[in-house]
Specification:
ATP hydrolysis activity, 4-stranded antiparallel sheet, 12 strands, binds adenosine-5'-triphosphate, single chain, alpha/beta, globular, ATP-binding, 9 helices, about 250 residues, about 30% helix
């Protein structure tokens, strides 16, 4: 599915953001407070832009019916307030779909397995560690079988193995993935294209190699970066000097 963010403005927070994603992994990076989550919130309808539009396959998200069948979001607000078991939380991902008990059970079991939380399925969600919770919320999004997956810092709380697994998984789904990432090296490794936000504006777009260059990193993040090639994948990776620039 295609996601078009067209000249989206949320007053005082983001200005004139235009970006597109279609059956690829698109990353949004930028400093704290630059408007990344706000941009995603306009996609999963937690926020209505003051101007501009977000279209999914050409239809405005606020006009689109049954959006939960197409789009799943892991947001900063994704939380579970009540004392559900892990299995129940993941089963919630099936709610947008017509009931089909055998298929629902299979999809939920697969989702639990894929993010390595099947052994927790009887546990109370509220008793889990931060990383376990994050993986269960990712399993819930997978159980939704979305065609657009919106992820706000999906690697939050995850150890390095699970960070790599979750991003590899997002790539392997073959759906449109729009993700905010803080780790620029993970963004370079797993995203087809990157968009950089700074103070609510889009300041660069392109492949990781095009975007993650020392001049831009210095301007936007106020740090000095050196670009090296990953010895086995050849993907650009950044090494940072310890001093920050004013
Ligand atoms: N509802 C709101 N009312 C007022 N200001 C807001 C609101 N939501 C976000 N902001 C402000 O807008 C700016 C952008 O917020 P946003 O959460 O989109 O940034 P971000 O790039 O995702 O940041 P982070 O990397 O810290 O998660 C921040 O300064 C934030 O305080």
């Amino acid at each position: 599915m295609r996601v078009d963010i067209e000249q989206v403005t949320v007053r005082g927070i983001i200005t004139d953001i235009t970006l597109h994603a279609s059956n690829e992994v698109v990353g949004i990076v930028g400093p704290n407070g630059s408007g990344k989550s706000t941009t995603l919130r306009c996609v999963y309808r937690a926020l209505k832009p003051d101007s501009g539009a977000v279209l999914i396959d050409g239809v405005g998200v606020h006009k689109r019916q049954h959006i939960a069948r197409d789009l799943a979001a892991l947001s900063q607000e994704s939380q579970v307030e009540f004392d559900f078991t892990v299995a129940e939380v993941v089963e919630m991902g099936r709610l947008p779909h017509e009931r089909d008990p055998a298929r629902d059970r299979r999809v939920v079991a697969e989702a639990l397995d894929t993010v390595d939380v099947a052994h927790l399925s009887g546990r109370s969600f509220l008793s889990l560690s931060g990383g376990e919770r994050q993986r269960v919320l990712i399993a819930r999004a997978l159980a939704q079988e979305p065609r657009v997956l919106v992820l706000d810092e999906p690697t939050n709380h995850l150890d390095i193995r699970h960070q790599l697994e979750v991003l590899a998984l997002a790539r392997s789904l073959g759906v449109t993935v729009l993700t905010v990432l803080h780790d620029l090296n993970l963004a370079a490794s797993y995203c087809d294209r990157l968009h950089v936000l700074d103070e609510g504006r889009l300041v660069a777009s392109g492949t990781p190699a095009e975007v993650l260059v020392p001049e831009l990193i210095a301007k936007v993040f106020h740090v000095t970066a050196h670009v090296v090639r990953h010895p086995t994948t050849g993907v650009p990776q950044l090494l940072f000097d310890q001093e920050v620039t004013p």
